[in-house]
Design brief:
Keywords: ATP-binding, Nucleotide-binding. GO terms for molecular function: ATP binding; ATP-dependent protein folding chaperone. The structure is a single chain. The protein is α+β, with helices and mostly antiparallel strands. The chain folds into three domains: 167 residues, ATPase, nucleotide binding domain (Nucleotidyltransferase, domain 5, 2-Layer Sandwich), CATH 3.30.420.40; 104 residues, ATPase, nucleotide binding domain (Nucleotidyltransferase, domain 5, 2-Layer Sandwich), CATH 3.30.420; 116 residues. Helix content is 40%, strand content 21%. Strands 1, 2, 3, 4, 10 and 11 form a six-stranded mixed β-sheet that branches. It has a five-stranded mixed β-sheet with strand order 14-13-12-17-18, sandwiched between helices. The model has no long low-confidence stretch (mean pLDDT 93).
């Protein structure tokens, strides 16, 4: 069958194919069914994706790494051009290059051409901007057509996760689906049962659907701004009383999708001028070193790794000896909570809105189905569980539930 479910995520991507025995995620990188949403362009223009892309960057191969590609959808960045070797290409072309290769690998694994796709999408690409949501979905539809899909439709990511969970139950229940991904947090309240699973039209079973543009990359950004960027001059004073070093450089450096902006020669000239007027120029020297060596993604990768490490250990420091001998950012679990607790609170508040939308008290939720990498953060998990404390907590496939659910939907729509 030529139908598939594509979960193009901010951090990771999966693609499921419809098989006779049921939905199956395709191996996209060696035997791995998840692949990082990353692409690396070598100086000659050749591209690598996924773990190979990150490895090429870490190993010092000359070129440009791009991650969190999905986060530019719905923003003006989508049609901005970025230099790749001697040419400039738009971000929508970058996304197309990445997804084209994902599709090619899935087709090789499935042994058939894939022409029909149910594309996952967050409830809101952009908060409070319906027009931005429309532009983002239209862009994904256009890109899917460019890379060879002929039948293209969409499903909300938390609904897809609900379809995966529904395959596991043997009685009717009301489930709150919490999908905390790399770029967005999405929630659905859905009535599920084995009998309902066979229906093709499920509109009446969706009791509420909402989301907020907060995800794992935001936790990375806030943690970086709170622990690493001050070592490079963030919030340090200028010589002129009452002024701090401009913060925009550090926000770009802490944001996956904005890092490459800093490599523009004009930006470097501006930073050097700021350094001359800074009260602590030695801190700006560290920032300049990172940008001159185009190592912004190294910082982002290390901060992300520290965040993940704090799930298992109370301390997860980031070594910055490559910037300056002996330099390190000391990061403890309490730092993660302090710098990102507001994000967890906002996620929990959105669940409250979802319950209000459904007209349900939290005690009416039978199951709380958790999926997405950021549900592994203890304080995020606690905030979500507190919103429906009486519900049974069910662990989904952290990175695969949405892709499986989209594939279930693809089988229904295109069978």
């Amino acid at each position: 069958m030529s139908a598939c479910g594509l979960d193009f995520g901010t951090s990771n991507t999966t693609l499921g194919t419809v098989r006779r025995e049921g939905p199956e995620l395709a191996a996209l990188e060696a035997d791995k069914v998840t692949i990082p949403s990353a692409i690396f362009y070598r100086r000659d223009g050749e591209a690598e994706i996924g773990r190979a892309a990150i490895s090429a960057y870490v190993e010092g191969v000359e070129g440009r790494l791009m991650r969190a590609l999905k986060s530019v959808l719905g923003s003006a960045l989508l049609d901005e051009a970025t230099p790749i070797g001697r040419r400039r290409i738009k971000f929508r072309e970058v996304i197309a290059d990445y997804l084209r290769e994902v599709k090619r690998r899935a087709e090789a694994a499935a042994g058939t051409e894939l022409t029909q796709v149910v594309h996952g999408r967050p409830v809101h690409f952009v908060d409070g901007d319906p027009e931005g949501d429309r532009r983002a979905e239209d862009a994904l539809r256009d890109i899917a057509g460019e890379i060879g899909f002929t039948d293209i439709s969409f499903q909300f990511e938390p609904i897809a996760a609900a379809l995966d969970y529904e395959r596991q139950i043997n009685s009717e229940q009301i489930a709150l689906i919490a999908d905390i991904g790399g770029g967005t947090s999405d929630f659905s309240i859905v009535r599920l049962s084995p009998e309902r699973h066979a229906k093709t039209e499920r509109g009446e079973d969706i009791l509420a659907n909402d989301g907020v543009r907060i995800g794992g990359t935001d936790f990375d950004r806030f943690l970086s701004l709170g622990t690493v960027m001050p070592l490079l001059g963030f919030r340090s004073p200028m010589q002129r009383p009452g002024l701090d070093v401009p913060s925009g450089y550090f926000h770009d450096l802490a944001t996956w999708s904005s890092i490459n902006r800093l490599y523009d020669p004009k930006t470097m000239r501006d930073i050097r001028q700021v350094r001359r007027e800074a009260r602590q120029p030695e801190l700006l020297d560290r920032l300049i070193a990172v940008i001159e060596e185009e190592r912004g993604h190294t910082l982002a990768i290390d901060v992300e790794g520290a965040k993940i490490g704090l799930s298992d250990a109370p301390q997860s420091d980031v070594s910055l000896g490559w910037i300056e001998p002996g330099l390190a950012a000391e990061i403890g679990r309490e730092d993660l909570v302090r710098h990102t607790d507001d994000l967890a609170t906002r996620i929990a508040q959105r669940i409250g809105r979802c319950l209000d939308q459904a007209g349900l008290a939290h005690g009416r939720i039978d199951a709380l189905f958790l999926t997405g990498g950021s549900t592994q953060l203890a304080h995020v998990r606690s905030a979500i569980v507190a919103a429906a404390p009486e519900a049974r907590v069910v662990e989904g496939d952290t990175f695969g539930s949405v892709g499986i659910g989209l594939t279930v939907e693809a089988a229904r729509r295109y069978a």
